[in-house]
Design goal:
The protein is mainly α. The protein is 64% helix and 0% strand. Helix 1 packs antiparallel against helix 9 and helix 4 packs antiparallel against helix 6. The radius of gyration is 22 Å and the shape is globular.
Length: 297
């Protein structure tokens, strides 16, 4: 294998990983309850198209990498994957038909080699495939010239999201994330850094919506499985294959709650964060009390 092929495998895996994480983060911020945004929710649901575009492309690439590396590990030749196109369902089935080729213990946990069964399927996979194939990706543009175009991605997402759920742990992490944004924003204002920190706060304060978080975590589990298959296919199977688990495992080899904690809420040490927040909110309450006293003077 040439250095160019080695470099291409690593770069493609890095590309697919970042696309996927970017997509999942954005999908968590899709509002699914229009009544919370009277007259304005449609200005926010574009996040769904941003997230779906990144996620579907990332998942497709990870599946194709898993298939390509598995076949190469077994035969010494990479397959032509063009026939799969953007057919997410077929790609997931093809990954499910693979026989893991590694004889050792891969970087990811063996339990993640099992294809996840999700109560939101087949609707969830069908929605991702419809979007990836172009019907969803281009629905707004197509509707401009074709009055029969169905703009349905948001309605599909909201309907499936209504059936999703999250664990108590994820719900608690969501509360911590919200408290982090409130605390940091208040501290910046108190230190005279409101304008300086404004752009950073926009990202930190981006809200998440529980139904969409549930959907995103279902989508995450598909990616975790595909990336574990990729890890296994390259884990000392052939000397010329890079250990691609070193790229995907730090991001995807987690429980759903830990993925949300590290890569959506961006909390490294939950206990330390909670302790710091307690101290910050003590200061905030003191400031608020002082401001209330001044208002009464």
């Amino acid at each position: 294998m040439t250095q160019a092929i080695w470099d291409s495998l690593v770069a493609e895996t890095q590309f697919a990983t970042e696309l996927t994480v970017t997509g999942l983060r954005r999908l968590c911020s899709v509002p699914t309850e229009p009544e919370l945004f009277p007259g304005g929710y449609k200005a926010l649901n574009y996040a769904l198209h941003v997230g779906m575009h990144s996620y579907s492309s990332g998942l497709e690439r990870l599946c194709k990498l898993a298939i390509a590396c598995n076949v190469y590990a077994a035969t010494g030749t990479f397959p032509n994957l063009r026939s799969y196109s953007h057919k997410i369902g077929n790609l997931l089935d093809a990954v499910g038909a693979l026989t893991p080729t590694s004889h050792g213990t891969s970087i990811c946990k063996a339990k993640y080699l099992v294809r996840p069964l999700d109560g939101l399927d087949p609707d969830l996979t069908s929605m991702v495939e419809r979007f990836a194939n172009g019907a969803g990706r281009y629905e707004h543009l197509d509707s401009l010239w074709n009055g029969e175009t169905e703009v349905s991605t948001y309605n599909e997402w909201s309907a499936i999201a209504a059936r999703s759920s999250v664990s108590d742990e994820v719900r608690e992490l969501t509360s911590i994330k919200k408290a982090m944004a409130e605390a940091i924003g208040s501290e910046l204002v108190d230190r005279g850094l409101e304008s300086t920190g404004q752009m950073a706060m926009e990202d930190l304060a981006l809200p998440t919506y529980e139904p969409s978080v549930g959907m995103a975590l279902s989508l995450f589990r598909k990616v975790r499985w595909a990336s574990t298959m990729l890890d296994t296919a390259t884990y000392y199977t052939r000397q010329e294959l890079p250990l691609l688990g070193e790229v995907v495992a730090p991001i995807f080899c987690h429980s759903s709650a830990d993925f949300f904690k590290y890569h959506i809420a961006k909390i490294e040490d939950e206990e330390a964060v909670v302790e710091e927040l307690r101290e910050v909110f003590k200061r905030i309450r003191v400031r608020e009390a002082e401001e209330d006293a001044e208002d009464l003077d």
